[in-house]
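debug: dumping io for the single-chain case to check the tokenizer round-trip. Nothing else runs in this session.
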Amino acid sequence: MLVLAFDTATEVATTALVHDGSVLGERRSRPVRILEDLDALLAEAARERGAVEGIVVGTGPGSYTGLRMGLITARVLALALDVPVAGVSTLAALAHGAPGARPLIDGRRAEVFTLENGTPTVVPAEALTVAREATYVGDGAVRYRALLEEGGARVPADDDPVHVPWARHHAALAENFGAPDLAEPIYLRVPDADRAITG
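debug: decoded output
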């Protein structure tokens, strides 16, 4: 199955073109360049859009704007190409790319998104239970390196690729392809705009 996979939940957007588990190409850029990157991947692999059989999209948690951008792109592409969509958690993709490590995404507001017993959750960074000798990955791990290392954890170098939610990992984890609207974003808190209105 030829799939286009992408994630726009963090400041680093990733895209990949994957055929039956083999990565034909991948890119890393910014969320606003997602369509440009997807077109470039198809061109580099000499594949037409019509050859795509599925879309895999990162469902977060992460930036509200980034998530909406990715999900809308996935839905529009799926409808245009008449292909199914599968959603994969950005945290799950990070964990898949660094087996045994604990994923952390910077949630801003002094919070991090992480997994607790396999379930996405948001916690204040200062309240995070740090496991000694554990390895943490993701932009949240980079941002809160001092806190984690003080607690006896390990964080790979800032430029280590394990901190990036590579779309190839989303493709590897994709299951249950279906209607585009079944890929739902993982929102763990109210968007800033809604808080401003109701606050």
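debug: round-trip ok. The CA atoms of residues 105 and 139 lie 5 Å apart.
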